[in-house]
Amino acid sequence: MKVFSPKVVLFLHAFPLSKDMYIYQFRKLEEKGLPFVALDYPGFGDEPPPLGDVSIESLTDFVVFKLRSLGVREVVAIGDSMGGYIMFDLFRRYRTLLRGLVFVATRAEADPPEAKKLRYETIERVKKEGKAFLIETMLENQTSPATKRDTSKMAFLRTLMEKATEEGIVKTLKALAERRDNTDLLSQIDVPTLVIAGKDDEKVTPPQVVKKIAQGIKGSVYYELENSAHLPPFENPKAFNEVLEKFLKEIF
User: What is the pTM of this model?
Assistant: First the structure.
Protein backbone atom coordinates (compact mmCIF):
# COMPACT_ATOMS: atom_id res chain seq x y z
CA MET A 1 0.00 0.00 0.00
CA LYS A 2 1.41 3.39 -1.01
CA VAL A 3 1.15 6.12 1.59
CA PHE A 4 1.92 9.75 0.85
CA SER A 5 1.58 11.15 4.35
CA PRO A 6 3.84 10.86 7.40
CA LYS A 7 0.76 10.84 9.66
CA VAL A 8 -1.93 8.18 9.13
CA VAL A 9 -4.72 6.26 10.79
CA LEU A 10 -3.54 2.71 11.54
CA PHE A 11 -6.04 -0.17 11.66
CA LEU A 12 -5.13 -3.28 13.71
CA HIS A 13 -7.56 -6.18 13.42
CA ALA A 14 -9.05 -8.67 15.86
CA PHE A 15 -8.32 -12.42 16.00
CA PRO A 16 -8.89 -14.43 13.80
CA LEU A 17 -9.94 -11.85 11.22
CA SER A 18 -8.08 -9.55 8.84
CA LYS A 19 -7.76 -5.89 7.99
CA ASP A 20 -10.99 -6.08 5.99
CA MET A 21 -13.04 -6.11 9.19
CA TYR A 22 -12.60 -2.31 8.89
CA ILE A 23 -14.08 -2.10 5.39
CA TYR A 24 -16.69 0.46 6.47
CA GLN A 25 -14.02 2.69 8.02
CA PHE A 26 -11.91 2.55 4.85
CA ARG A 27 -14.81 4.00 2.89
CA LYS A 28 -15.43 6.77 5.41
CA LEU A 29 -11.77 7.83 5.58
CA GLU A 30 -11.51 7.80 1.79
CA GLU A 31 -14.53 10.13 1.65
CA LYS A 32 -12.85 12.47 4.13
CA GLY A 33 -9.47 12.30 2.41
CA LEU A 34 -7.73 10.94 5.50
CA PRO A 35 -4.70 8.66 4.88
CA PHE A 36 -4.72 5.25 6.51
CA VAL A 37 -2.79 1.99 6.70
CA ALA A 38 -4.44 -1.36 7.41
CA LEU A 39 -2.30 -4.44 8.01
CA ASP A 40 -2.82 -8.19 8.22
CA TYR A 41 -0.77 -10.09 10.77
CA PRO A 42 1.35 -13.04 9.58
CA GLY A 43 -0.93 -15.96 8.79
CA PHE A 44 -4.08 -13.83 8.43
CA GLY A 45 -5.73 -12.15 5.47
CA ASP A 46 -3.17 -11.68 2.71
CA GLU A 47 -0.07 -12.27 4.83
CA PRO A 48 1.73 -15.64 4.59
CA PRO A 49 2.17 -17.71 7.77
CA PRO A 50 4.83 -16.60 10.26
CA LEU A 51 8.26 -18.17 9.86
CA GLY A 52 9.09 -18.37 13.56
CA ASP A 53 7.38 -18.02 16.91
CA VAL A 54 4.87 -15.22 17.42
CA SER A 55 4.51 -12.87 20.38
CA ILE A 56 2.69 -9.59 20.84
CA GLU A 57 6.12 -7.95 20.73
CA SER A 58 7.05 -9.62 17.42
CA LEU A 59 3.71 -8.52 15.95
CA THR A 60 4.37 -4.96 17.10
CA ASP A 61 7.79 -5.05 15.47
CA PHE A 62 6.17 -6.37 12.28
CA VAL A 63 3.71 -3.45 12.30
CA VAL A 64 6.44 -0.88 12.95
CA PHE A 65 8.60 -2.32 10.15
CA LYS A 66 5.69 -2.01 7.72
CA LEU A 67 5.00 1.57 8.81
CA ARG A 68 8.61 2.63 8.47
CA SER A 69 8.87 1.03 5.04
CA LEU A 70 5.96 3.27 4.01
CA GLY A 71 7.57 6.40 5.43
CA VAL A 72 5.00 6.76 8.22
CA ARG A 73 6.24 8.65 11.26
CA GLU A 74 3.06 9.13 13.31
CA VAL A 75 -0.19 7.20 13.69
CA VAL A 76 -3.58 7.32 15.29
CA ALA A 77 -3.90 3.61 16.06
CA ILE A 78 -7.25 1.83 16.10
CA GLY A 79 -7.15 -1.68 17.55
CA ASP A 80 -10.01 -4.11 18.10
CA SER A 81 -9.35 -6.84 20.70
CA MET A 82 -5.92 -8.26 19.81
CA GLY A 83 -5.21 -5.00 17.99
CA GLY A 84 -5.49 -3.29 21.36
CA TYR A 85 -2.79 -5.54 22.83
CA ILE A 86 -0.45 -4.44 20.06
CA MET A 87 -1.34 -0.81 20.78
CA PHE A 88 -0.31 -1.19 24.40
CA ASP A 89 3.04 -2.54 23.24
CA LEU A 90 3.37 0.30 20.73
CA PHE A 91 3.00 2.74 23.61
CA ARG A 92 5.43 0.80 25.75
CA ARG A 93 8.21 0.57 23.14
CA TYR A 94 7.41 2.98 20.28
CA ARG A 95 5.78 5.88 22.07
CA THR A 96 7.01 8.51 19.58
CA LEU A 97 4.94 6.89 16.80
CA LEU A 98 1.65 7.54 18.56
CA ARG A 99 -0.54 10.59 18.04
CA GLY A 100 -3.72 8.99 19.35
CA LEU A 101 -5.23 5.66 20.45
CA VAL A 102 -8.61 4.05 19.86
CA PHE A 103 -9.09 0.95 21.99
CA VAL A 104 -12.02 -1.19 20.82
CA ALA A 105 -13.48 -4.21 22.64
CA THR A 106 -10.19 -5.03 24.32
CA ARG A 107 -8.69 -5.30 27.80
CA ALA A 108 -5.54 -4.27 29.64
CA GLU A 109 -5.27 -7.41 31.77
CA ALA A 110 -3.29 -10.52 30.87
CA ASP A 111 -5.07 -13.86 30.58
CA PRO A 112 -5.95 -15.39 33.96
CA PRO A 113 -4.93 -19.06 34.40
CA GLU A 114 -8.25 -20.50 33.19
CA ALA A 115 -8.29 -18.41 30.03
CA LYS A 116 -4.68 -19.29 29.31
CA LYS A 117 -5.47 -22.99 29.80
CA LEU A 118 -8.39 -22.72 27.37
CA ARG A 119 -6.18 -21.13 24.71
CA TYR A 120 -3.68 -23.98 24.93
CA GLU A 121 -6.48 -26.54 24.75
CA THR A 122 -7.74 -24.76 21.64
CA ILE A 123 -4.26 -24.89 20.13
CA GLU A 124 -4.13 -28.66 20.54
CA ARG A 125 -7.60 -29.06 19.10
CA VAL A 126 -6.75 -26.94 16.04
CA LYS A 127 -3.67 -29.09 15.47
CA LYS A 128 -5.81 -32.24 15.55
CA GLU A 129 -9.07 -31.13 13.96
CA GLY A 130 -8.32 -28.01 11.94
CA LYS A 131 -9.81 -24.54 12.31
CA ALA A 132 -13.49 -25.10 11.42
CA PHE A 133 -14.68 -25.49 15.03
CA LEU A 134 -12.80 -22.34 16.05
CA ILE A 135 -14.47 -20.30 13.31
CA GLU A 136 -17.91 -21.45 14.46
CA THR A 137 -17.06 -20.52 18.06
CA MET A 138 -15.73 -17.11 17.09
CA LEU A 139 -18.75 -16.31 14.91
CA GLU A 140 -21.02 -17.15 17.83
CA ASN A 141 -19.05 -15.40 20.57
CA GLN A 142 -17.95 -12.24 18.77
CA THR A 143 -21.23 -11.06 17.28
CA SER A 144 -24.38 -9.39 18.61
CA PRO A 145 -27.93 -10.66 18.03
CA ALA A 146 -28.41 -7.92 15.42
CA THR A 147 -25.30 -9.03 13.52
CA LYS A 148 -26.36 -12.68 13.65
CA ARG A 149 -29.61 -11.73 11.92
CA ASP A 150 -27.66 -10.14 9.06
CA THR A 151 -26.75 -13.15 6.92
CA SER A 152 -24.55 -11.14 4.54
CA LYS A 153 -22.46 -9.76 7.39
CA MET A 154 -22.08 -13.18 8.97
CA ALA A 155 -21.02 -14.65 5.63
CA PHE A 156 -18.43 -11.89 5.20
CA LEU A 157 -17.00 -12.52 8.69
CA ARG A 158 -16.80 -16.24 7.92
CA THR A 159 -14.88 -15.50 4.73
CA LEU A 160 -12.36 -13.37 6.63
CA MET A 161 -11.87 -16.04 9.29
CA GLU A 162 -11.48 -18.81 6.73
CA LYS A 163 -8.52 -16.94 5.20
CA ALA A 164 -6.60 -17.41 8.46
CA THR A 165 -4.01 -20.19 8.25
CA GLU A 166 -3.93 -22.88 10.90
CA GLU A 167 -0.28 -22.11 11.54
CA GLY A 168 -1.10 -18.45 12.06
CA ILE A 169 -3.97 -19.34 14.39
CA VAL A 170 -1.88 -21.71 16.52
CA LYS A 171 1.10 -19.40 16.90
CA THR A 172 -1.05 -16.36 17.56
CA LEU A 173 -3.14 -18.14 20.19
CA LYS A 174 0.11 -18.82 22.05
CA ALA A 175 1.05 -15.15 21.76
CA LEU A 176 -2.34 -14.16 23.20
CA ALA A 177 -1.99 -16.61 26.07
CA GLU A 178 1.48 -15.37 26.98
CA ARG A 179 0.90 -11.62 26.59
CA ARG A 180 1.89 -9.37 29.44
CA ASP A 181 -0.44 -7.43 31.71
CA ASN A 182 -0.79 -3.79 30.64
CA THR A 183 -2.71 -2.31 33.53
CA ASP A 184 0.47 -0.58 34.71
CA LEU A 185 0.52 1.44 31.48
CA LEU A 186 -2.92 3.02 31.81
CA SER A 187 -1.87 5.85 34.09
CA GLN A 188 1.10 6.60 31.82
CA ILE A 189 -0.82 6.99 28.55
CA ASP A 190 -0.64 10.65 27.62
CA VAL A 191 -2.02 10.83 24.09
CA PRO A 192 -5.67 11.47 23.09
CA THR A 193 -7.52 8.22 23.73
CA LEU A 194 -10.92 6.89 22.73
CA VAL A 195 -12.29 3.66 24.24
CA ILE A 196 -15.23 1.84 22.63
CA ALA A 197 -17.14 -1.22 23.84
CA GLY A 198 -19.92 -3.22 22.24
CA LYS A 199 -23.00 -3.11 24.44
CA ASP A 200 -23.89 -6.72 23.54
CA ASP A 201 -20.42 -8.17 24.17
CA GLU A 202 -21.21 -10.70 26.87
CA LYS A 203 -18.68 -13.44 26.12
CA VAL A 204 -15.34 -11.85 25.16
CA THR A 205 -14.84 -8.30 26.47
CA PRO A 206 -17.96 -7.12 28.33
CA PRO A 207 -18.37 -3.34 28.59
CA GLN A 208 -17.38 -3.29 32.26
CA VAL A 209 -14.02 -4.83 31.30
CA VAL A 210 -13.39 -2.41 28.43
CA LYS A 211 -14.42 0.55 30.57
CA LYS A 212 -11.53 -0.12 32.95
CA ILE A 213 -9.18 1.09 30.22
CA ALA A 214 -10.98 4.43 30.04
CA GLN A 215 -11.09 4.71 33.80
CA GLY A 216 -7.33 4.25 33.97
CA ILE A 217 -6.38 6.74 31.23
CA LYS A 218 -6.71 10.37 32.25
CA GLY A 219 -8.79 12.42 29.81
CA SER A 220 -9.94 9.45 27.72
CA VAL A 221 -13.45 9.25 26.27
CA TYR A 222 -15.61 6.12 26.57
CA TYR A 223 -18.54 4.94 24.42
CA GLU A 224 -20.75 1.85 24.39
CA LEU A 225 -22.28 1.09 21.01
CA GLU A 226 -25.59 -0.68 20.62
CA ASN A 227 -26.10 -3.63 18.26
CA SER A 228 -22.42 -4.52 18.69
CA ALA A 229 -20.57 -7.22 20.54
CA HIS A 230 -16.84 -7.80 20.01
CA LEU A 231 -16.56 -6.16 16.57
CA PRO A 232 -18.19 -2.68 16.80
CA PRO A 233 -16.47 -1.21 13.67
CA PHE A 234 -18.03 -3.93 11.54
CA GLU A 235 -21.27 -4.56 13.42
CA ASN A 236 -22.45 -0.98 13.84
CA PRO A 237 -20.31 1.05 11.42
CA LYS A 238 -22.63 4.08 11.36
CA ALA A 239 -22.35 4.70 15.10
CA PHE A 240 -18.68 3.75 15.18
CA ASN A 241 -17.80 6.08 12.32
CA GLU A 242 -19.63 8.99 13.94
CA VAL A 243 -17.63 8.59 17.14
CA LEU A 244 -14.38 8.02 15.26
CA GLU A 245 -14.87 11.00 12.95
CA LYS A 246 -15.36 13.34 15.89
CA PHE A 247 -12.20 12.00 17.55
CA LEU A 248 -10.08 12.25 14.40
CA LYS A 249 -11.26 15.81 13.72
CA GLU A 250 -9.80 16.86 17.05
CA ILE A 251 -6.44 15.30 16.16
CA PHE A 252 -6.11 16.09 12.44
Answer: 0.96
